[in-house]
Amino acid sequence: xLLIDILVEEHNRILEVAAHLEQMSIDLMERDMFDADxxxxxxxxxxxxxxxxxxxxxxxxxxxxMTKQLGKVAENLIQHGMMVEHDEGRMCVRELSxxxxxxxxxxxxxxxxxxxxxxMEYVHMIRRHIEKENTVVYPFAERQLDAETWERLNREAxxxxxxxx
Length: 165
Fold this sequence. Notes:
Elements: H1 2-31, H2 36-105, H3 109-144, H4 147-159
Helix pairs in contact: 1-2, 1-3, 2-3, 2-4
């Protein structure tokens, strides 16, 4: 399944960045190492690739088709599971970004704690989220959607350009 292969590969990239964010959080905690530009570029990657590209591809293509074709089970899985977690990730990144900006302007123990807390909340959430998508959501979609739908989704995935507000 081409679309699923693309999404899983994107997950691998996101997990690499999550591991980097975890290490930056450890470095801040243990050695007071804070590189505002590095945190900023990590946040930018999460927002632009993880959310605006990857999550939007899931939401606009796969999740939309699952909800349309597979009924209440898919609707509950998507609306009350995956979409809630996408929003949770967005909140974590907003809070992490705000804490980084405050800390860069005027370092404080409170903002240091906020950076580490929100950074690690995102890391743990995205790891759980990706595990669920890779082992539950994607296999469910592979089993339930027909070949014609997959052909169309794969074509759309290759041509997909995210709608960035």
